[in-house]
Amino acid sequence: MGRYLAAGQEMSKSLSGASEVQPEKDDKRFRDPVWNSNPGYRSLMQSYLAFSRATYDWVDSLGISERDKLRARLLTGLAVDAIAPTNFLMGNPTAMKTTLEQGGRNLWKGAQQLIRDMLENGGLPSMVDKSKFAVGENLARGEGHVVYAEDHLELIQYAPKTHTVLKTPVFIVPPQINKFYIWDLAPGR
What we know:
Blueprint: H1 2-16, H2 34-37, H3 39-61, H4 66-82, H5 93-101, H6 105-120, E1 144-150, E2 153-158
Antiparallel strand pairs: 1-2
């Protein structure tokens, strides 16, 4: 409670313009100068930062194992980042400026992308424009073949590129992000 009371006091200070809370230097979300020049946006940013710091401080003060604390910090980070004002149109001066400049076309384009992702990408946000890649042309150029496949994975056995090879093959499990053919043994890689 003490941490949130302190955060509440800091939020009150932000409303009166007395708060000095600033984002970390590497926090790109608040780079737009409007965050500091507009009192409303400055107060919103400072209130969010005070709340998020209080939440992280609370997690750090829990009497749990370091492993559980790391898990709690991960979950806390997801929740705190999700409610950042930059994730909402009215809370993001850069997005508001872009919307005004483009007459709302950016919102229309985003809605179209959302529908495309829902219909063609299992509801997940597209990471890349898939039309730019063609298997065998600029993707999966290394000789090899799929030796096992199911909905969530493909096991690819690549042909050796050298005269001598190790007896035991290397089995690589890439991360879910950029997972497709990240280890493709195309020329130059």
